[in-house]
Design brief:
The complex is a heterodimer of chains A (316) and B (332). Chain A is mainly alpha-helical and 316 residues long. Helices cover 52% and strands 5% of the residues of chain A. Chain A is built from nine helices and four strands; from the N terminus they run ββαβαααααααβα. Chain A has helices at residues 22-45, 73-94, 105-129, 140-154, 169-193, 208-214, 230-258, 263-271, 276-282; strands spanning 5-9, 15-20, 67-69, 273-275. In chain A, a hairpin with a 5-residue loop joins strand 1 and strand 2 (15-20). Chain A is globular, with a radius of gyration of 23 Å. Chain B is α+β, with helices and mostly antiparallel strands and 332 residues long. In chain B, strands 4-5-8-6-7 form a five-stranded antiparallel sheet. A four-stranded antiparallel sheet of chain B has the order 9-10-11-12. Chain B has a three-stranded parallel sheet with strand order 1-3-2, with helices on one face. The chains are: A mainly alpha (316), B alpha+beta (332). Chain A binds chain B through residues 6, 8-11, 16, 18-19, 96, 101-106, 195-197, 203-206, 229, 232-233, 236, and chain B through 2-3, 132-135, 139-145, 147-149, 151, 161-163, 202, 204-206, 308.
């Protein structure tokens, strides 16, 4: 444990948990690089296409418009604002530790506040204007499809996997991962922000309410969390673990977003729409139904309500 | 308080005679090494057993770090020059009295005989939570014990804080900022010159350091440019004990005047932030202005704009305000 956690001595020689060690950050960076490079080499070695595949639309495009809205303008504004704030958070958190020093604390908490506001907006927008569960639900059928896809990736003898609906299984898995990790980082980040000077409150170094909650818990020998102020260490550890996990997750997200064979997702998030060829090549119309300009109810594991068939709107 | 054992843990002593040798030793021993100037800060750390270096590199034998000489533009002062030497130096007293005055306010004659200008500048903060071995932010931990609601923070900062609220303890630092001194920092592969104002850094930038010095860096020389020679100077230090104490608040100011009008000014305050604070807004106010009581009062008020006291150091706001007011008033 000592290798990954930072434990310091107080004046009485007792160990006090401080947070995660720098080594964990280096490990996360190394894993992120390893994953990206490893995936790139493996993908190439398996002979998968490095370019975006498009479908022959002859005969299969009846009723499908040339452009298909994938993300509405409000969704895209949320995504890019959240992405920018997340990048600022990661840069201000880790770049100073890598040696490039600047006054990062104020930028960090402001970016955190922006992230919280965008997430609140996203939740309200998803519940009121979108099909909230389309990106959240995962059933047995989804797992079976995911396994088929996974087997195909591992073995060329395995049959072609089924095409997904609007949000493939791995996207929904990632969404869940980012929800859990971000919420952990946000809750602990707010607790940490209570300890620093902001225009909103007087800083307080301690969390008496959390201290009381963990007062009886003992970790390690001698017990390091049963001391006054131990809650601070736990908060720092959770925030740190969430932070280094986000290094890997964000790196993977950016990598897949800019891969040539997946670039239709990126264009969809920039322009708001994908074209008919991309739609037919990569998605199952039965799962992401886009017919005649009407908003379709999605079948299980399939489309969401903001998937309309339309010519690009003025705001798209 | 820390447990003072009066017995310094054993270490290996090195006494290099050149800067190059000192830098090589610092590189060789890395974090296990400790650079010793006058020893007045270092031996406190050692006796409290908060710092336990394996190797101590004593700079006392390096001649090129000692003494005051005339430079191409002003004075060149070696970092190991004692404070007494600065106080007594004829040219310092005649042209740069601000520095002599500040150096004379450091501790006691015995300490000034032993203490060096470089050591006085880069000495560590005297926050007792930090000095007592608490794992605070500055010590690599995750808490500022001095900012807690029940903390004893009478001597701590009212501005420039970022999680850590410790103050710079140096008496000569604000004078060097006011004189626009240049600090030469040598590493094994490079040498850099910093304005005194930029030499000190706050916790927002790096919470574990008070200056730009990184591991392996050595402050070798302080240049005092002729730009501010023979200016009108004002230095005042408020402390609990007049005989021997760190400052609560101090002010160092240099004015170029024409009659009653301030043509140019540099004003720095220490004891209110983790670094000596240059009062740019006050300087902008007074430059070009004829000094009267109203100007002095306004300067004092502007000096504490944006400051935010802790539970026990609200007195530093009027104290700072009054010191700046007196500095401006001294021109009239």
């Amino acid at each position: 444990m000592g290798r990954w956690l930072d434990v310091e001595l107080n004046p009485w020689g007792q160990e006090v948990l401080q947070g995660i060690s720098l080594e964990l950050m280096y490990l996360a960076i190394a894993l992120a690089v390893l994953f990206v490079v490893g995936h790139m080499l493996w993908y190439r070695s398996r002979g998968f296409s490095e370019h975006e595949e498009t479908a022959d639309v002859q005969g299969s495009a009846a009723g499908i418009p040339e452009r298909i809205v994938r993300h509405t303008l409000p969704s895209r504004i949320f995504h890019w604002t959240m992405g920018a704030s997340m990048l600022v958070l990661l840069i201000t958190a880790f770049v100073p530790l890598l040696g490039l020093e600047f006054a990062w604390v104020t930028i960090h908490w402001i970016a955190g506040a922006v992230l919280i506001l965008t997430i609140i907006y996203h939740v309200i927008h998803s519940i009121v204007w979108q099909d909230f569960w389309s990106m959240m639900s995962m059933g047995a059928k989804d797992f079976r499809e995911a396994m088929g896809h996974f087997r195909h990736l591992l073995s060329s003898k395995s049959p072609e996997p089924e095409k997904p609906g609007k949000y493939p299984f791995d996207h929904r898995m990632y969404h869940w991962g980012i929800i859990v990790t971000s919420l952990l980082a946000i809750v602990t980040g707010v607790l940490m922000t209570l300890r620093i000077k902001t225009p909103f409150w007087e800083p307080d170094a301690y969390y008496p309410f959390v201290d009381q909650a963990v007062a009886g818990i003992e970790v390690g020998e001698p017990a390091i969390t049963a001391m006054p102020g131990a809650a601070t260490g736990l908060v720092f550890v959770i925030h740190g673990i969430a932070g280094v996990a986000l290094i890997i997750m964000v790196a993977a997200h950016i990598y897949f977003a800019i891969r040539p064979d997946k670039r239709y997702y990126l264009w969809g998030m920039i322009r708001g729409w994908i074209d008919r060829e991309q739609y037919l090549a990569h998605f199952d119309p039965d799962k992401w139904s886009v017919v005649d300009g009407s908003i379709q109810e999605s079948p299980p594991g399939g489309a969401i309500a903001d998937s309309t068939v339309s010519a690009p709107r003025a705001d798209d | 308080m820390a447990i003072i054992r009066d017995m310094i843990p054993a270490f290996e002593l090195f006494q290099p005679t050149t800067v190059e040798d000192a830098l090589a030793l610092m590189a060789e021993h890395g974090e296990a090494g400790w650079v010793l100037a006058g020893g007045l800060d270092s031996y406190d750390w050692f006796k409290d057993r908060i710092k336990k270096p394996e190797a101590v590199i004593d700079l006392g034998g390096i001649d090129e770090l000692n003494g005051i000489s005339d430079g191409q533009d002003g004075l060149e002062i070696g970092a190991m020059t004692t404070l007494t030497e600065i106080v007594r130096h004829e040219r310092v007293r005649s042209e740069y009295m601000l520095l002599a005055d500040a150096a004379e306010h450091v501790a006691t004659p015995q300490i000034r005989n032993q203490g060096t200008l470089g050591g006085n500048i880069i000495q560590d903060t005297r926050c007792w939570y930090y000095r007592s071995g608490w794992a605070c932010y500055r010590a690599g931990g995750n808490t500022c014990y001095a900012a807690a609601p029940e903390a004893m923070n009478r001597e701590h900062a009212i501005t420039g804080t970022s999680r850590c609220v410790a103050v710079s303890p140096s008496d000569t630092a604000p004078a060097l900022v006011a004189l626009d001194a240049k600090m030469t920092v040598r590493g094994r592969r490079s040498s850099n010159v910093y304005d005194a104002e930029d030499f000190f850094i706050g916790p927002a930038t790096d919470i574990t350091r008070m200056t730009v010095l990184e591991a392996g860096d050595l402050l070798t020389q302080i240049d005092i440019p002729s730009e501010w020679a023979n200016a009108h100077f004002y230095y005042e230090k408020i402390r609990d004990r007049g005989s021997w104490d760190f400052q609560l608040v101090s002010v160092a100011a240099a004015f170029k005047t024409s009659g009653n009008t301030i043509e140019d000014a540099r004003i720095a305050v220490n004891g209110i932030a983790p670094f000596p604070v240059r009062l740019d807004a006050v300087e902008r106010l007074v430059i070009g202005a004829a000094v009267d009581e109203a100007l002095a009062v306004e300067a004092g008020e502007i000096a504490i704009d944006g400051s935010r006291p802790l539970k026990h150091n609200e007195y530093k706001q009027p104290m700072t305000s009054n010191l700046v007011r007196r500095a401006v008033r001294s021109v009239a």
